[in-house]
Fold Adenylyl-sulfate reductase subunit alpha.
Amino acid sequence: MTSTEVLNNYTIEEISTDVLIVGGGMVGCGAAFEIKKWAPKDMKITMIEKAAIERSGAVAMGLSAINTYLGDNTPEDYVKHVANDLMGIVREDLIYDTGRHVDSTVRLFEKFGLPIFKEDEDDTRTIEEGAKPLRAGRWQIMIHGESYKVLVAEAARKALGEENIKERVFITELLMDEKHENRVAGAIGFSLREAKIYIIKAKAVIMACGGTVNVFRPRSQAEGMGRTWYAIWNAGSTYAMGYQAGAEMTTMENRFVPNRFKDGYGPVGAWFTLFKSRVLNAHGEDYMQKWGHMLQDYAPYGLAKVPATCLWNHVMLKDWMEGNGPFYMNTSGAMKTLFETLPEKRKKSLEADAWEDFLDMTVAQAGLWASMDIDPGETNSEVMPTEPYFLGSHSGACGMWVSGPEDLAPKEYQWGYNRMTTVNGLFTGGDGVGASGHKFSSGSYVEGRIAAKSAVRFVLDDPGFTPTVHTDNKVLAEKVYGPMITFEKFKDYSTESNVNPNYIKPRLYLFRLNKLMDEYVAGTSTFYRTSEASLLRGLDLLNRLKEDAPKLAAANLHELMRAWENYHRSIVGELHLRHVLFREETRYPGFYYRTDHPKLDEQNWKVFVNSKLNKTTGQPELFKKPYIEIVPKN
Ligand SMILES: Cc1cc2nc3c(=O)[nH]c(=O)nc-3n(C[C@H](O)[C@H](O)[C@H](O)COP(=O)(O)OP(=O)(O)OC[C@H]3O[C@@H](n4cnc5c(N)ncnc54)[C@H](O)[C@@H]3O)c2cc1C
């Protein structure tokens, strides 16, 4: 719908609910499934999702593996693994909590109908009945996962009821209660299909909009722009809206720079662990063997049996700087070796695992191979670190600072309700919870379930509360439709609608953000390097960009979504920049370098960096929070 049609015809629908779930990804679906078990019959639960929950979020295309399944490992092992991978600074209480619940959630997925590979292919039992899942590494199990999201969505729909799920609705902002300080009171958003604003008043909100893609300039440009590693529709809404509501943020300096098949973004993990493949430099050398000694500089994280993910990038980048790139995954060699050694029966399924499974979770990789005439059994493919991403559930750690479980969290990390942020009534999970990565799909679902249970308790503990939002509905609606109002006002000023001195289109706003983040905040063009001077220059440009945010213009509903997405992205960009500036060390070499503080500084910086919006100045305040060890490391 065009801006003219929308602005002339729009209506406002007000919804009153008890618990609002924003985002129907793994967290949202986990929360929806769990919540009805704890909520009294008359408690109203509403879910809002910008897409359609069957194919939304980071699991939309499906997955080939569930990356967190403990099996014979203990929650303590899991904490040690995650802590090492994230260079020591993690919330061990939260990780332990996820670890102790995750296997029962995986068993639940199998009950929903998810096919899980078994060690013995002929074993028809479920895991619960004693079958051993086929591992693709210490923590991963293999699945036929093309319908993974469809299955969890079906369970969420059945639990909540169709009438309580609104899809194709984009949430722009959280609403705060007028009578109670620091208490959430709902959210506001707009339909992407019709001229309608939704104002939802809620006693508790579970914010679950995933992480952030495309803050940095992606490697693939122009015709390849749609290809990214991370889910293209997760635009930082979780972090931006949480931060603006006043939630304390944590570890926003962290980013994930996945080392993946170049430009196709196909996963490499199974190639390493299942097919025993190696990445070699242009001269056929193993860069890890060549430069492995560099890991000693990052003890203890570099000396673990499996060094931290960022350090693998660090070593590869060193080899690249020495002029030894490009790098190739030795797919052809690995497949030939396996075919020589495997029994006939296993060869067919191996081939399926190697090629066809890319189709379910990374169709772009299959497309790229097809278009370049590559048979990976014959031709090796390039591997390269990508542009940076922000997430809290995969191998990253940014997100909100949340209250931990009562029985595990030290008092500094606990204020009543598990997975509640520092804003009363605002809960989160998965990518929304900071300093506790490596949850992946299964762990995110677990956190959705935990958040749901806590949100119900929160609402029941305060039966007298009614959300109060004083701002006039029309004023709220005009803010949401602001970019359309701007477009309508100035659209006739120029003949080319994208070029106009009175406004900025979302696409151009995004290009400006991408460029400044890439060039000053350690993107790919600087090989992930930055310094205080660079960051301050970046901040200057970012402030100028933010000045233009009120001039964003949208000609239709789709562009309106882009305007809000890119605005959310720019808030995430600023938070990241400021956190990188505050942390005066290089904690994640291979993900980014502070060239003016190139070393790891355990003595001064083994702490969390947290931030919070000062609502009076409109600026973030940054401060340190102590890291408290719960599981002893040796
Ligand atoms: C490329 C990639 C590969 C992965 N591979 C694996 C794997 O092999 N195994 C594994 O176990 N895990 C894997 N994961 C991790 C897993 O996908 C995530 O941990 C999990 O999806 C996080 O759950 P979430 O609910 O936080 O976010 P998501 O599942 O991404 O859900 C976020 C939801 O919020 C919605 N949303 C966003 N913004 C708004 C808004 N403003 N208003 C309304 N709705 C909004 C989105 O549409 C989406 O439905 C992978 C992730 C990625 C990105």
In short: The two ends are 60 Å apart (CA to CA). Residues 22-28, 48-51, 56-59, 63, 65-67, 170-171, 208-210, 229-231, 233-234, 237, 393-394, 430-431, 439-442, 444 surround flavin-adenine dinucleotide (CB under 6 Å). The chain has 19 helices and 19 strands. The mean pLDDT is 95.
